[in-house]
Amino acid sequence: MSAGQAFALWSAAAALALWLYLHHRRPLRRRVSTLRFWVTLPPSRYRRPQWLREPWAFAAQVLFLLLLIVALANPRWGRAIESRSVAIVFDTSIWSQVQPPGESSWINKARDEAARFLGALPPSDQVLLLQAEVDAPPVLPFTTDRAALRSAIGGLRASSSIADVPRALEAAKAALEGSRRGLLVYIGPGMLDDEQLRRVEAFRKMIEPSNGSGDRPQFLVRLVGGPAPVENRGITRLALTRDAAEPDHWHLLTQLKNYGKTRAVVSLKLSGNGVPLGQRVLSLPPGELTGVHDEFTWARGGFLQAEISPADALDADNRAIVRVPSFRPVRVVIFTARSSFERELRTVLSTNPYLRIQFLRPGISPTAPPDVAIYDRLRPTSRPMINSIWFESGAPSASSRAVRLTGWNPQHPVTRWVRTRDVSVHNPASLEVRPTDTVLASAEGFPPTPLMLAREQDGHKSLIIGFDPADSNFPQQSAFPLLMAAGVEWMTYQIEDVSDSLPAGELDVPGPATRIVAPSGKDVPFARKGTDVHLLALETGMYRVLGPDREASIAVSAPPLLPSQRLTPNSSETASIEPETVPAAGRDLWRWLVALAMVVLWMEWLLFYSSRVNRQAAGGRQTTVASQVRHAVPVSERSLQHPEVRDPNFIA
Amino acid sequence: MPSPLLLDREFLKTLEEVTLLCGTDSTGFIGADHRSRNHGPGLEFSDYRRYSSGDDPRFLDWNAYLRLGKLFLKIFETERHVPVRILLDRSESMDCEGADESKFLYSRRLAATFAYLALLHLDTATVVPFAERLGKPLAVSGGRENFWPVLQFLGELSCGGGTDLYRAVKEFVAMLPSRGIVIIISDFFDEEGSKRGVEMLRSAGHDFVVLQVHSAEEQRPSVVGELLLEEAETGFERTVECSPQSAVLYERAFLEFSARAKRLAMRNGGRYARAVTSIPYQDFVLRSLRTTRVLV
């Protein structure tokens, strides 16, 4: 607000106050029956409002308005302390790890560049330091403390995740919204993918001044590293698939990419838990993604590492690690005295490569305790303390008609994939359903007859099937092997068929966890998502996930397909820092002015009403004196205290 | 159409227990409920007198003749019609609205009450509005069945003009020369006219009641500060500074004025009552008018 505007506003307000003062002086108009009694009252000194009766109160009112308007104008006092806002987006993504031969790493160059940039800024500029990584918190809020900024920049470490440069730029621009213009600078390698390039272009269009008014922040780009392409070859993916016939046999897919402009020959070494598994030499075409397939047998579980050599500019993606799930076949013992049953079960179970089956006559004990026992029409005196499948059936009858099995429980893991309605059985058993049982299948009818139950008792699981497979068409159905496999898996454990390397960045890993330790030994903050945990993994290598009763390890590799296009800054982005005209400023005075205005307003009220009260008291005194002279009857206090009018006919 | 003056049914029922007190002899027709000084046919024994020829032998007291051997005639008091005249001020000053009920509405309710009392006792009720001059009157008789025209008449009245009570009374006496009860309902701010009018009523032999009606605000102004006052009847203006102290002086002047009005009524043989519109009219009628011996 200029001085002229403030003066004009104050003049208008003062004129309004004057009018109100004059207007207020107009007496209250009343229509009365007679004026005869009012002649006893002193006549008002009121004249048509040509003058003020409370000039001091009016002066206070005008002063109050002046102070208020000046406070609105927000004057300042003292030396200028206004500063410009600067946001630095510092890229510490995986590309900043690049260290060309004979040169320092890009992260060091970026630190130097940032230090130079800070040195070019006026000391009064307040600087916000942001990282370009996804979900990375601000490193430092707006501050003018150059030492703190240099220390924070020096403490930044190159991560192994991919940057989201457009998102970081938009966040920085949002942080500058409250400032006059501001300065936004990106410092880093500027490696982007196609999508990020497109978004950066959109950001450039958004931030460039539309009418030359200069209300958008100045955007600068400070790239580190030379214009020459980076000679880098990296492993982008390491994936394992279990062989369908041999569970301890694995198929390995290794994907590699040559980010350089020339063909590269690399040596790929595979090792499991430190034991070399193989080595091969590959020729990688420039800019191409190459997939390599390997097979190996490995039942112990652990970690498989792939590593390429020779070393290149970026070391982080020269190796990748994938977890190899361990494998142990499930021991299943079938107790049956019937050859027909044995034939049907052998046909079904022998197709499952994860099982080791053994048929025994009832009463014979197995050499080793099985994982799952299958009982055919057996009712042992004591319930065995192992997981078990029980086949029961009703008494055979010649007149028994086939019963259709229709009601499958789609929620239970055993029958989740069973949908058939073509199963018909003879001589079904009558099953006793306990309150804790889950009915997996039932025969048609009203009410439906349960023919398959899942039971969990004393930490062991049981599957009770109320019909003889040999007395049904179930073995001919494809659902039967599915049911048996799902039943065994429900009772034992799930066998993992695939495993993939985890890329650096945001990860969801199985919990619970109380602490997660990064490969560098630092604690990693994480969030709980149910039993899983969510973390931001910025390093590659082995992370320790410490739970309340166990410890697990996860292997994190470099992200697949790193962004490989270089940001090309234009001339305005490589220009020097434009000086921003910062108006002279000092301490804000508006608070003091408002406080003073409140005091003046109170004085105005005091002056106004005390003047009125004094005048009325004076008028009252004059009238009382005159009345006393005439009537010699003073005004009693009592009559002043009881102003109500009572029935006059009862007043003495 | 219901009248705005509607008196509530309970109040009308209560009025059956009171009577308008007649202070002087009247010249109305024989046959109503009021006792009179005239002797004649009636139920109330009054006195004996010696028989003279021509007297109605039906009133001879034969018991006295047997004891004394002389003829005495029993004399009874005659019950007469008492014409009740209600002079109702409808000048502009009666229409100054305040926080309480309008003076004019209050006055019309009082007028209706007196008319109802008259009709209740089979008397003739005449409502005569006045301002600077006498207005068109309404006379009703024949019992309370004829009360509705009174309500209708009063409901249609409106305020207007100044006050000249003397002129109005002069015209009233000329129009209704027979004696009766005259109830003047007014604020009596026309003090000189009131004085002359009351004296004229006394000269005409009327039994009159002075009912001064005013609002509580008129007795004690509640507003303070500078006031630009406009007199309702004349339009004159005056600017005053009103404070709690000066309001007390105002009230004193008003009370002195009321005292003068009361003295005027008493000195001329009338009765006086002062009605404040902040007090419910039912209370005023049933309590204050009994206290002031207007009703019994």
Explain what the structure shows.
- The complex is a heterodimer of chains A (652) and B (296).
- Helix content of chain A is 25%, strand content 29%.
- Mean pLDDT of chain A is 81; it is low at 622-642.
- In chain B, 35% of the residues lie in helices and 26% in strands.
- The two termini of chain B are 33 Å apart.
- Residues 25-32 of chain B have low confidence and may be disordered.
Number of distinct beta strands of chain B: 10
Beta-strand residue percentage of chain B: 25-35%
**Number of distinct helices of chain B:** 9
Assign a percent range to the helix content of chain B: 25-40%
Low-confidence stretches of chain A: 622-642
Using the alpha-carbon principal axes, give the shape of chain B: elongated
Shape of chain A: flat
- Summarize model confidence as the mean pLDDT of chain A: 81
Classify the secondary structure makeup of chain B into a structural class: alpha/beta
Global Rg of chain B: 23 Å
Number of helices of chain A: 11
Radius of gyration of chain A, taken over Cα atoms and rounded to an integer in Å: 45 Å
List SSEs of chain B in N-to-C order.
HEHEEHEEHHEHEHEEHEH
Low-confidence stretches of chain B: 25-32
Biggest β-sheet: strands ordered side by side in the sheet of chain A: 17-16-18-19-24-23-22-20-21
Helix content of chain A: 25-40%
Strand order in the sheet with the most strands of chain B: 5-4-3-6-7-10
Judged by helices, strands and strand pairing, the structural class of chain A is alpha+beta
Write the topology of this structure:
The complex is a heterodimer of chains A (652) and B (296).
Chain A lengths: L2 H22 L3 E5 L22 H19 L2 E2 L7 E6 L15 H15 L5 E6 L8 E4 L2 H10 L9 H11 L7 E6 L2 E2 L1 H14 L10 E6 L9 E10 L6 E10 L5 E9 L2 E10 L4 E9 L4 E8 L9 E6 L5 E6 L3 H11 L5 E6 L11 E5 L10 E5 L11 E6 L14 E3 L12 E6 L5 E9 L2 E6 L13 H13 L6 E3 L1 E2 L1 E5 L5 E3 L8 E4 L2 E6 L3 E6 L4 E7 L7 E2 L4 H4 L12 E2 L1 H42 L5 H5 L11
Parallel strand pairs in A: 3-4, 3-6, 6-8, 16-17, 16-18, 18-19, 19-24, 26-32
Antiparallel strand pairs in A: 2-34, 4-5, 7-33, 9-10, 9-25, 10-13, 11-12, 11-14, 14-15, 20-21, 20-22, 22-23, 23-24, 27-30, 28-31, 29-30, 31-32
Chain B lengths: L8 H7 L14 E21 L11 H7 L3 E9 L3 E6 L13 H18 L4 E6 L7 E3 L6 H10 L8 H11 L5 E6 L4 H13 L3 E8 L1 H4 L5 E7 L5 E6 L1 H24 L3 E6 L4 H11 L5
Parallel strand pairs in B: 3-4, 3-6, 6-7, 7-10
Antiparallel strand pairs in B: 1-2, 4-5, 8-9
Helix pairs in contact in B: 3-4, 5-6
